[in-house]
Amino acid sequence: MRELLAGLEEEGVPVRLASGTPTGGAATSPADSGEAATAVELAHAAARASPLDVGVGIDVEGRVCVHHAKRPADRPVVTTDATRARWCGHNAARLVVGLPLKEPPEQLEETWPQH
Amino acid sequence: MRELLAGLEEEGVPVRLASGTPTGGAATSPADSGEAATAVELAHAAARASPLDVGVGIDVEGRVCVHHAKRPADRPVVTTDATRARWCGHNAARLVVGLPLKEPPEQLEETWPQH
Amino acid sequence: MTLLVGVDIGNSTTEACLAECGPDGPRYLGGALTSTSGVKGTADNVPGVVKVVQEALSAAGRDQHELAAVLVNEATPVISGLAMETITETVITESTMIGHNPDTPAGAGLGTGTTVAFAELGACAPGERVICVAGAGVDFEDAAAGIAAARDRGVEVTGAVVQADDANLIVNRLPTPIPVVDEVTLVEKVPLGMPAAVEVAEPGRTVRTLSNSYGIATLFDLDPDQTRLVAPVARALVGNRSAVVVRTPSGDVADRRIPAGTLTLIGEHARLPVGVDAGAEEIMATLRRVTPLADATGEAGTHVGGMLATVRDAMAETLSDTGGEQDAAIQDVLAVDTFVPQRVTGALAGEFALENAVALAAMVRTSRAPMEALAGQLRSALDVDVHVGGVEADMAVLGALTTPGTRRPLAVLDLGGGSTDAALATGDGEVHSVHLAGAGDLVTKLIDSELGLDNRDVAEDIKKNPLAKAESFFHVRMEDGTARFFDEPLPAEAFARVVVLGEGGMRPVPTRHPLEKVRRVRRSAKHKVFVVNALRALERVAPGGNLREIGFVVVLGGSALDFEIPDMIAEAVAAAGVVCGTGNVRGSEGPRNAVATGLVDEHAGRTR
Amino acid sequence: MTLLVGVDIGNSTTEACLAECGPDGPRYLGGALTSTSGVKGTADNVPGVVKVVQEALSAAGRDQHELAAVLVNEATPVISGLAMETITETVITESTMIGHNPDTPAGAGLGTGTTVAFAELGACAPGERVICVAGAGVDFEDAAAGIAAARDRGVEVTGAVVQADDANLIVNRLPTPIPVVDEVTLVEKVPLGMPAAVEVAEPGRTVRTLSNSYGIATLFDLDPDQTRLVAPVARALVGNRSAVVVRTPSGDVADRRIPAGTLTLIGEHARLPVGVDAGAEEIMATLRRVTPLADATGEAGTHVGGMLATVRDAMAETLSDTGGEQDAAIQDVLAVDTFVPQRVTGALAGEFALENAVALAAMVRTSRAPMEALAGQLRSALDVDVHVGGVEADMAVLGALTTPGTRRPLAVLDLGGGSTDAALATGDGEVHSVHLAGAGDLVTKLIDSELGLDNRDVAEDIKKNPLAKAESFFHVRMEDGTARFFDEPLPAEAFARVVVLGEGGMRPVPTRHPLEKVRRVRRSAKHKVFVVNALRALERVAPGGNLREIGFVVVLGGSALDFEIPDMIAEAVAAAGVVCGTGNVRGSEGPRNAVATGLVDEHAGRTR
Ligand SMILES: Nc1ncnc2c1ncn2[C@@H]1O[C@H](COP(=O)(O)OP(=O)(O)O)[C@@H](O)[C@H]1O
Ligand SMILES: Nc1ncnc2c1ncn2[C@@H]1O[C@H](COP(=O)(O)OP(=O)(O)O)[C@@H](O)[C@H]1O
Ligand SMILES: [Mg+2]
Ligand SMILES: [Mg+2]
């Protein structure tokens, strides 16, 4: 969680409070807020709640997901594990700021078909 | 109301349904939905409900207001009367599309202090 | 220990340098700067000088009666002028074409047929190919219904031209889309019963057929002679998202050159005329042929002629005030190619065309200034000794040499508002100087006119600051791609607009041009004036015109504070192996205060 | 009535034109096109020709046995080659500088001091001015706490250089901000105990002090000789948002020219060598001096030398296959200035520098083709009469004249993949032609290398289509500002990226460059190749080299389908009063099918 917030902060996304959690403009739903919920579900819910339309979810299994309010619920931007939380923070921030996502797209949920 | 929708359509904002009203991507709240509500209140409520963050309100007195979900409730983008409904439609669409608003800014709620 | 203040009266700015001089040389206590009052080198400068001296004293916590002397440079009056002459004009006669970029044309493709008023559609026979022309007051639902009904009857309505902003509304209501061009203000002037073509390109693309002479020839079955006549129409439509061409019997587009008058450049040996419409390159080549310029005149009745006369008259008046009697001869001109967006005569949809123009800066400078009056008044105003002396160029070099890392041979490039001055100090202490027309004010003027702003303040802000685009109510994206956030929502007027982040905060640029276009205009204006003038100036002061003989170039003056001009100049002279950078006078003042510092330095050296 | 098909075998494309010829001349039934199989003018072309003939027949609903004859142009083999020679190299020795644009530097301003490892901060004495260098593994909270503690003790930590992407995190945790540059990959190579400066510019701005030679001189107290040495450092830092300069005793940046070998241009009378590193302009000037070119050779061991040898060998082999014995001499070269982004040797943060390069296109073309073998095999494959004949240029002119609105004197500009060909038909029917190296393939190559894509397909897509930027998951903004919406969300990879909207749908451009930069590269590549070649070609065919003597210019070939190249050429020749546009062969085919149409036309004329 610290790494996630660090990623958001480093990108300079202005910090706002959402559901009592300090976030970098994107609402985060910590795992303990919904027992059976998956990271994807949490992330989408957070994104929909966020005024900036971006949400991050972490589930009990340690999966981390970055989502956008306007994407279909089952098609998040990124899903990965806790070791890449910092990277998720960066990319959640970049969705807000409108910058291309960081690093190679191997982790991205949807990439372009290779031409 | 027809003129408002015409303005939205002409700008080519994709049509979506919100609260049962056909709109050009922006949710519109017809006057009859809230008795005492002003156009500004209706517009802000519509904007917050809209997935595109833009709303238009028309009140019983025939005032028309264009609002954006992220602006403070009491500081809409445009407030004018029904004779300029078409122009409101255009500008609501332009907020969605990311184009500068149409025509001279005399009608805009907030302009720049003259330098 | 004596307390001295050196004062440099520039065309725009008066600068002071305060120092305490003892046996070990000067100890600098600080400086100050203010706007110059009146024409440089005249008694009108007194209030500015008094102000700047007092500010320098109070900043250093010193009192006026401690002051031993004020050192003023020999400020020779300089008068400069700017003028612009448009040399092309696009005129549309007989409404032959409409090529514009309405925000919302609709229905990509090409339609051809005879122009028919909307009301007459019902009278068209099946099989007829027509272009529908709908004027003011035709409702979009009626328009769509009428067109659809005609098509049902077999009338081939292949395109439409409408007055209102209705194109998408109409096309959305048709069973099959046709190209529709809207926002044609003067639609009632579209000739009816004539063969016409309507083309709308896909989003992001531009018309292909109507911007091609042979495309028009194919559509209207033109012979080679007719094709030749229609070629300017095609050329004028290049780059438009949508276009209409109506083939009228006598229709014609003239892309004509306006006779812009002649400029006569008078050198010591030759006197060469050059047409202003020949363009900047030709004018500057002619100037090189007569160099050194002794005077210049412009044809009466033209902007350039008027400007040269005004400059000369202003100088004559300045000199007569002070009883001097020198001739006010134009000493340098700089011509720059530019363009001005101008409303096309005869256009039906408020079309603008970019017309070619030549901007000209000119300068008169006297060799000897009427400084006695100024010095006298200054003496009584400040009640202190006033020494006039030190040639400006020599002082600038002395001041520039206080920049760390420099030594002779050194060239100074002083980028001011009205003129670009250069001086070269060779190893043996000699100083050669040159004063060229055209500097910061011309850059501002070019930005103003090329963007059609008609607002000098905004143009000056654009010149001095990076641009951004307001991408939402809460953030802007800077021209380098970085985002900046705001807590307060931006005004509606700013939304999706290009803004400039100046000292007075954010200000919208009143233009439809995209950010990149504004940036390009800004950079090219700086390039056309300062890179050209820097090279001209250095070539004229360098031994044998060879830049390689100059060891160090120190860039000074108000325009050296610019965030990109010094880099452009450094880039341009890099090939010659010269060290070039912005001056840092006394290791602390940046490119300001060189002359004022030089005055103190020289005085200290003399008295030691 | 006889059914004929004309076939044009081009370097890239084989085109067919089907027609029925009767007493009233040809009636065109349609055409077809496919990729050329093998080297143009060799028997390898047969499969392509068979394919295109069958496609043309079946499109018109005709059967192969109705066909009376196939007309093939005299397709002379053309081999062209492209090579690129980098002529400058930026090398950093002794880690003198780090100038890069990390996404997130922090704390605008300038800091100076001695470099100290983070772990050693505790050992610094109060009053010491230091720059903290934090390597891998230093957590941002520890880094901030350590710096804050040192500052509390009076150690002046004025800036920091860190390895991780942590700059904002650190600065946000300091009581007062200092400039911090992050993402310095090889931070362990930063020399410690040396004077250094760290500069971070405000968002949207670039460094001012470290990009100015005198700024560096001021900071490090350099004498003029040292300043001269440091000037290339300053120049290399121009345009960066953040920079670090460490003053090492023997530090040095070389902005050196790589000896790129010599090109020898052999004319009929002269044989002139020219260094490739002299740049394109010099090479083309030398070429003009030896014109007409008889041959060219490049220094062995250089890219250009290798390319010229390869081109010559390939042609020799093609000719030997067919028993011909002509010499394979280079007939034309086109040199173009370009640049290649290249990783800086010795850089600490993965910096790239734009190195200058020269791209060269060369061409060998035979005068007489080994067509008999091709014709023979074609005859047996299709079981029909095959006529070889018609000089390609003559046929192109005949085909071009079917464009509405044209007549002689007419010039054809055929913009292909490997070569730009021009032919002029004067009023009396004579045809002069010229074949120049460099066309569409060189444009693609320039786009590929200038953007550092290393992907020919993407470069080809960029060449042919307008750009857009994905501004959200649901819409893109086209390069002209119009927005396009999608119902399906775009892939995450596309977000905020530059994309190209090609035939195969949307494709992201794998680059960090902003849209405008990609657009600029695209347009300048087209300009450098096609405008230059169009003018070269027209000047060589025009009577007396005077463009005004040409009445009509018809632009043909695959590259004439481009959405901006024909406009650029029309613009360039407009001044000469020539009517110039894209061909519309037979009033319907656009710029394609001219030679195939010409073959039919000529045959019909002869048999009538
Ligand atoms: N920060 C700045 N950036 C760019 N230009 C500037 C800046 N400050 C002043 N200028 C320009 O400098 C010019 C005045 O220069 P200055 O040296 O004061 O003139 P002079 O030498 O004629 O007294 C004006 O054109 C002004 O726009
Ligand atoms: N739509 C298009 N836009 C731009 N360039 C194109 C287009 N179609 C083909 N080309 C270019 O045309 C060139 C091939 O031209 P072509 O006339 O077929 O060659 P050749 O005459 O050598 O057979 C290639 O460089 C290709 O990229
Ligand atoms: Mg000055
Ligand atoms: Mg070809």
TrEMBL record, chains A, B:
This is Glycerol dehydratase reactivase beta/small subunit family protein. It comes from the Bacteria. Residues 12-35 are annotated as: Disordered. It holds the Pfam family Dehydratase_MU. InterPro entries: B12-dep_deHydtase_bsu, Dehydtase/Dehydtase_re. Transmembrane segments: none annotated.
TrEMBL record, chains C, D:
It comes from the Bacteria. Residues 92-253 form the DD-reactivating factor swiveling domain. Residues 274-601 form the Diol dehydratase reactivase ATPase-like domain. InterPro entries: ATPase_NBD (IPR043129), DDR_dom (IPR030994), DDR_swiveling (IPR040916), DDRA (IPR009191), DDRA_swiveling_dom_sf (IPR028975), NA-bd_OB-fold (IPR012340). This is Diol dehydratase reactivase subunit alpha. The lineage of its organism: Bacteria, Bacillati, Actinomycetota, Actinomycetes, Pseudonocardiales.
